[in-house]
Specification:
Structural class: alpha+beta
Distance between the termini: 56 Å
Number of strands: 13
Radius of gyration: 23 Å
Largest sheet: 5 strands, antiparallel
Amino acid sequence: MSDTPKSRPIPSSRLSRMTRIGALAGKIAGSVVSQGAAKLLSGQRPSLSDLVLTPRNIQRITDQLATLRGAAMKLGQLISMDGGELLPPELSAILARLREDADPMPKAQLQAVLDDAWQPGWQDTLLYFSFAPIAAASIGQVHKAITFNGETLAIKVQYPGIGDSINSDVDNVASIIKLSGLLPGTLDIKPLLSQAKAQLHDEADYLREAAMLRQYSKALGNHPDFVVPDVFDEFTTATTLAMTHIKSDPIITLAQAPQAVRNRLMTGLFSLFFDEVFSFRLIQSDPNMANYRYIAESETVALLDFGACRDVPEAVSKGYLALLRAMAKDDMAGVAQAALDIGLMQTTHSESQQATVVALGKLACEALYCDGPYDFANSDLLTRVQALGMKLSFDEDFWHIPPVDAIFIHRKLGGLYLLAKQLNTQIDLREAASKWL
């Protein structure tokens, strides 16, 4: 089978990846100098961010990170959190483009990866294998296969060199983010970068993902609304993950289902989120919409991709349960204490800053105060949350990075809000959280 038209080889050595990032930084720096000189000569005083974030440079950044895939692309996805308020909108808009599917690797490169993982001659162990991927993302791509027993599998194949290049990729992308001039120089993002590296190393270990998938499946049990694939051990290695293929459609097709079905399944997803944090203490932290699939025949949702699955520490779980209950009672003193316990703010922050953090939390929980179903379809809640978050950061100089567990919990909840809006749903959030209130 010939390569797909969009396929591009993935730079697999650390040197080649560093060279590409270095060349990108050089082009951006050259653009800044030339554009800056031209503007100064015309009497303008441009900001660094205006010079870096030109349309040409934006295209350069996104194209190069999408070509590199791996941690370079994944970090962009992690930072561009749906509903997140950590970054200025200009930078979030650039990074959000990296949530799209990546270009697949050429057939020859794929063949080499599979030969290394399964040994040459592996084709004889399968009845059918499609070299054309059914999905391609930041760390790997997915292929359909059929065993001699007639089982249809979805096999995730990791891009070459991804695991070895994570640390350097993260550092290089962080340099580009700093170059943008949109983050204050006093903001220490090293702890966040360290956690990002750890998370990405976890995601690049497909044996770990297989274990997480089994653990999540056990916690989920026989849920009436959700299904997860089973792991197929024979073809699962550190760089390949074989699972049962679930026949399904993109989650956005659920938007065509009856309103009652949409509302029921979305309510179930919110309830599942609360179960993840408070009961399972195990959260699938990546809200990428590709990780949800709709099964129209049974009116259920398939949950996919458990590479970003992570344990929720007991203290964090208890902190958020206290926060939820205080929010539901409109107990703002309790909310403030829970926010301090979790680490969303600190006692060293000013009274005004702490009050704004509490107000931001109350705004994010707006649906809890709704009498009956909350209309996510016609809500601008995410926009208002981001606006207040940016006001806190810039007007009140509140540059505080919360604990990484909190970041991933917020990211997941923000993704659910966005999905609820795109599916045009009305959800009673108190009902979804009822057993925890």
